[in-house]
Design brief:
This protein is an alpha+beta fold. The chain contains 7 helices and 5 strands.
């Protein structure tokens, strides 16, 4: 995906998040984030919007601590505060030099501007789903190519870091296969798990797999981010491996 596409998606997802959260109310529980209220969710997401905007705008070399934004409002002032931070992030990304240099934090990341546009688009999309789960009703559909891109970021970026807790006593292989019409780039991921190293994801369907998760890209995206139950996808092979992923793959 192009940087402009990420920015457009970030704009849409932030607007949807704000609308859903305001409709739910500040104190509504968020089923997909146990222990959080909608207010917690909005404050968290906007803190990360402001954090990313500062990194890009100031070309910070990092690593940069994720300090809470000062003076966070409550009540009816919360929604315009969120929208102001979201708009400021969009302006920052749109005005930045495509060749800008600043800190990024995932292995194999794209250039910094593309990295931050991508990361914040996915951060906001996942939390938009959280806000809609608090509001109730149908979830807004994600673009399939964007959902597939998010699977790729999660598997080849987040879980390539040593801090990933997904480990198996002996080598195992998990396959993630989007299905359906116009299957979103056609990418299939094979994730190799072991006891002593972080998961190693390859964009390939070669070789046998101990377990396979398959379904529409949006379903797999939300499942892998622990926003949908395992039964939302088709699970073939050793279900215990899918259960292990589910228990240990949360991103802090």
């Amino acid at each position: 995906m192009e940087t402009t596409e990420y920015i457009d998606t970030l704009r849409r997802e932030g607007e949807l998040l704000a609308d859903a959260a305001e409709r739910a109310g500040e104190h509504a529980p968020v089923p997909t984030c146990p222990g959080w209220t909608t207010g917690d969710l909005v404050r968290h997401t906007s803190t990360f919007h402001r954090w990313a905007a500062r990194i890009v705008a100031e070309s910070l070399p990092g690593p940069v601590p994720e300090d809470p934004a000062p003076g966070v409002p409550t009540g009816t002032d919360l929604w315009p505060w969120f929208r102001d931070g979201h708009a400021a992030l969009l302006r920052t990304l749109e005005a930045a030099d495509p060749a800008a240099h600043c800190w990024t934090f995932l292995p194999g990341a794209p250039p910094p501007l593309a990295f931050w546009a991508r990361r914040q688009a996915h951060e906001t999309a996942v939390h938009r789903v959280d806000a809609e789960s608090a509001r109730g009703g149908e979830l807004t559909t994600l673009d399939a190519a964007f959902a597939a891109d998010g699977i790729d970021e999660l598997l080849t970026g987040f879980h390539a870091r040593t801090r990933s807790r997904v480990r198996t006593e002996r080598p195992r292989t998990l396959r993630v296969r989007p299905t359906g019409t116009g299957t979103e780039t056609g990418t299939v991921w094979t994730v190799r798990l072991s006891a002593d190293a972080p998961p190693r994801a390859e964009r390939s369907a070669d070789g046998p797999a101990d377990c396979e998760l398959s379904g529409p890209a949006q379903t797999l995206y939300l499942l892998l981010w622990n926003r949908l139950p395992l039964d939302a996808a088709a699970v073939t092979g050793d279900r215990a491996l899918a259960d292990l992923w589910r228990r240990t793959s949360g991103i802090g």
